[in-house]
Amino acid sequence: MISDLNILGWSQFFNGQLDLTEFDSLTPVRLSEVRRRSVVALTPALERLDIALTGDHVATDMAVGDFVLTDGERLIRVLDRKTVISRKAAGLAAQAQLIAANIDTLFITTSCNHDFNEARLERYLAIAIEAEATPVIVITKADKPEDMPAEIYEDRAKALYEGAEVLLINAKSPEDIARLERYCGTGQTIALVGSSGVGKSTIARGLTGEDIEVGDIREDDAKGRHTTTARSMHRMHAGGWLIDTPGMRELALHDASEGIATLFEDITDLATECKFSDCQHQTEPGCAVRRAIETGELDPNRLERWRKLVDEDARNSETIAESRERGRKFSKMVKSVKKAKSAKRGE
Ligand SMILES: Nc1nc2c(ncn2[C@@H]2O[C@H](COP(=O)(O)OP(=O)(O)OP(=O)(O)O)[C@@H](O)[C@H]2O)c(=O)[nH]1
Ligand SMILES: [Zn+2]
């Protein structure tokens, strides 16, 4: 049974979570769709299994890509995730929405044109590092670069993070798609992120042979949290899985302080040498970061991008308590305005 499961991306990481009774009586399956009150799971035979959610199991605790145990009818439990990608729900509620689970490699996609933007790439790099997925930067349209030679785009991407391979491709060329396939073999799960028009669908088609329509198919539950309703796991020619969910294309940064610290390790390291432990690297004396800028060791643009990313992360990482506090303050304000108005009217 276990060898068949490898097709789904099963590994020792998941195997180790089962006790003996579970081994004997339950089947691991992988979620390919998460609906409001049910999920669709893939079996090792690649059959689709519809499982209604009962008891304590709620859709918002599950993500496409999750491994779950089933007795054939019910879902028994969700296994711990190797990696998880989430985003903050819109509105006041500061709850994280699970977008996809157990992704091994994130293809961060951009093109040899105006879409190329270091800050945007760094945002996705921080997301991947935080999720513990391997980031790979894929630069498409190498066959028709705009404004500068394709190799310059490649070099600029390579300068961002040592831990990320950079692949310069023509997404329409099968030979170039084949260069991505070493991340896409049996047992591997990947996802594509990047702006509209950079070639994600073209790459997805090259890797799977399918035209994948993500569209806007979504269901909103009473609390405004969406659940994925389209089939989101696609088998690739190389044997692995591509996960494509609507949320994946709209990723925003949140709770990624560790990812940012790893991505900007040079700045993180320098900051430990600043005289003040809470140094903001502005005008403080004994600032190692500013000194590195003066000596040319650190690129001031890189420092600026780091600052913006840290700010963005902090803004989007508001805790549930903080969001409630903001809600309270707002309703207090509304009440006092109402009161002032009625006082004015002499009520
Ligand atoms: N010449 C060339 N054209 C490309 C390349 N990659 C993508 N294209 C073209 O660019 C256009 C947009 O590509 P898509 O694959 O639809 O982009 P996308 O990222 O999926 O866009 P969304 O679906 O809006 O998210 C299409 O016309 C592609 O054929 C490339 O490497 N070279
Ligand atoms: Zn400093």
TrEMBL record:
Stretches with biased composition (Basic residues): 326-347
Cofactor binding note of this UniProt entry: Binds 1 zinc ion per subunit.
Domain CP-type G: 95-251
Binding residues for Zn(2+): 274, 279, 281, 287
Residue spans of biased composition, Basic and acidic residues class: 314-325
Pfam families registered for this protein in UniProt: RsgA_GTPase (PF03193)
Chain positions recorded as GTP binding sites: 140-143, 194-202
Superkingdom of origin organism: Bacteria
Annotated stretches, region: Disordered: 314-347
Cofactor: Zn(2+)
Signal peptide: none
Transmembrane segments: none
PROSITE patterns, A to Z: ENGC_GTPASE, G_CP
UniProt EC number: 3.6.1.-
Annotated GO biological process: ribosomal small subunit biogenesis
Record domain EngC GTPase: where: 101-249
Function of the molecule: One of several proteins that assist in the late maturation steps of the functional core of the 30S ribosomal subunit. Helps release RbfA from mature subunits. May play a role in the assembly of ribosomal proteins into the subunit. Circularly permuted GTPase that catalyzes slow GTP hydrolysis, GTPase activity is stimulated by the 30S ribosomal subunit.
Name the record gives this protein: Small ribosomal subunit biogenesis GTPase RsgA
Organism: Celeribacter ethanolicus
